């Protein structure tokens, strides 16, 4: 399987995966993110206890890239500390902005989300890929 087929398959699988597309009862953090240029609209909910993301989910609608990216992010960051999550978010954003190029490092830190590295070559889709990540960052950095 070539890389573009693998990329497409992972995007489609995460777009269809609904286990993290839900509301969280008793969430501690919630933020809505919206991309007016394409209509992506996502709400991130997190349950954070003792500085650890115990549960992370999203609702909303959007293109397959925004939904798949949100799915990958929730898989990756659930169970991490808020500090770890913020570091990983910065690494993801650095990858998309073409500031981090070491694919082995990216695969190690971002796991499946590293497959979105190619989005940096599609300027119109960058906002789709980063929407959930920016939204979670805003949610956890807000003072309660």
Automatic annotation (TrEMBL):
Family of this protein: Belongs to the NifU family.
Species of origin: Proteiniclasticum aestuarii
Lineage: Bacteria, Bacillati, Bacillota, Clostridia, Eubacteriales
Biological-process GO terms, alphabetical: iron-sulfur cluster assembly
InterPro entries with a match to the protein in the record: NIF_FeS_clus_asmbl_NifU_N
GO molecular function: iron ion binding; iron-sulfur cluster binding
Official protein name in the record: SUF system NifU family Fe-S cluster assembly protein
Domain NIF system FeS cluster assembly NifU N-terminal: 7-128
